[in-house]
UniProtKB/TrEMBL annotation:
Membrane keyword on record: yes
Entries under InterPro entries matching the protein: CLDN1 (IPR042356), PMP22/EMP/MP20/Claudin (IPR004031)
Major localization listed first in the record, in broad terms: membrane
Organism: Onychostoma macrolepis
Recorded superkingdom: Eukaryota
Keywords: Membrane, Transmembrane, Transmembrane helix
This protein's record includes keyword Transmembrane helix: yes
Gene Ontology annotations for the cellular component aspect, listed alphabetically: membrane
Protein name per the record: Claudin domain containing 1
Membrane-spanning segments: 7-26, 140-163, 170-193, 213-236
Subcellular location: Membrane
Membrane topology: Multi-pass membrane protein
Length: 252
C-alpha cells in the first residue's frame, strides 16, 4: 500500500523524468550547442573565398579544418549531430544591399563522428589528439546512455506498477542519478572539446563564439534527472521504513 506522500513523490519524479528526457532529446537533435558570429561580407575576393568554403562544407568530404573555417567565417552553429552555416538565399554574397540569409545544415555521419582528431586540424601528419578524439566520442555516446537509462527505469517502473510494488523505486532512482551524471558529463565533454579546438585553431578577426540554447537544455536536464532520483530514493526508503515499523507493530 502506497500512502499519499509516496504517491505524490512518484508522480512528481515521473514528471521531472519526462521533462528531462524531452529537454535532452531536443538538445541532441539541435545544431545550436555553439554558435559563431562572423563579420559581414563586403569584398568580392572575400566573397569568392567564402563561396568555396560553402561548396566544400556542403558537398566535400569531412575535414575538420575546412568545416571549422566555414563555421568560423559564416556564422556557423555546431551541435552533436549537425553543423550549419548561414548563406545568402540567392547567388549574391554582397551585403550591400543585405541579402536574405538562410541556414544550411549538414549532419555528421556515424563514421565522421568516430573520425580521429589531429593535433593540427586538417594535418593528418601531426598525430592524433587522443584527448579531443575521446571527448568528441564521449559527448556523442553519453546522452544516448542517459536516455537509455531513463527508458530502462521507465520499463521497470511500469512493471512495478503492474505488480503493485514500490521496492524497485530505489534502483530506478539510481538509474536516474546515473542519467543525470551522463547528461552533465556530456556538457562538460563538449565544452572541454570546444576549448581545446579553439586552442589549436586560429579564430579570424572579429569572430566571436557563444554557447547556444541547446547546451543549456542539456544542462537543465541533469538536475531534473537528479531531483527525480532523489524523490524516487526517498519514496522507496521511506516506504520501506514504514513497512518495517508496521510489521514490527503487528508482531508486538
Amino acid at each position: 500500500m502506497v500512502d499519499n506522500r509516496h504517491a505524490t513523490a512518484l508522480v512528481i519524479a515521473g514528471v521531472l523524468s519526462v521533462l528531462a528526457s524531452v529537454y535532452l532529446s531536443v538538445s541532441i537533435g539541435s545544431p545550436h550547442w555553439f554558435r559563431y558570429t562572423s563579420p559581414p561580407v563586403r569584398a568580392e575576393p572575400n566573397a569568392s573565398e567564402l563561396r568555396a568554403l560553402q561548396d566544400e562544407f556542403l558537398d566535400g568530404d569531412f575535414d575538420e579544418k575546412s568545416v571549422s573555417d566555414a563555421l568560423f567565417r559564416m556564422n556557423g552553429t555546431l551541435g552533436l549531430w549537425w553543423r550549419c552555416v548561414q548563406t545568402p538565399a540567392d547567388a549574391h554574397w554582397y551585403r550591400e544591399p543585405d541579402p536574405k540569409m538562410v541556414m544550411e545544415c549538414v549532419s555528421f555521419t556515424l563514421s565522421q563522428q568516430f573520425t580521429p582528431k589531429y593535433k593540427e586540424p586538417g594535418n593528418h601528419n601531426s598525430g592524433e589528439d587522443l584527448i579531443r578524439t575521446y571527448l568528441w566520442r564521449c559527448q556523442l555516446l553519453l546522452p544516448l546512455v542517459s536516455l537509455g537509462l531513463v527508458v530502462l527505469g521507465g520499463l521497470m517502473g511500469f512493471c512495478a506498477c503492474l505488480c503493485g510494488s514500490l521496492t524497485p523505486a530505489l534502483f530506478i532512482g539510481l538509474l536516474h542519478l546515473l542519467a543525470g551524471l551522463c547528461s552533465l558529463a556530456t556538457v562538460c565533454c563538449f565544452l572541454a572539446g570546444m576549448d581545446l579546438l579553439h586552442r589549436v585553431s586560429v579564430l579570424p578577426d572579429r569572430v566571436d563564439g557563444a554557447l547556444g540554447w541547446s547546451l543549456y537544455l542539456a544542462l537543465i536536464a541533469s538536475p531534473l534527472h537528479m531531483m527525480a532520483a532523489a524523490l524516487l530514493v526517498w519514496a522507496a526508503r521511506s516506504h520501506s521504513q514504514s513497512y518495517y515499523r508496521m510489521t514490527a507493530y503487528r508482531v508486538a
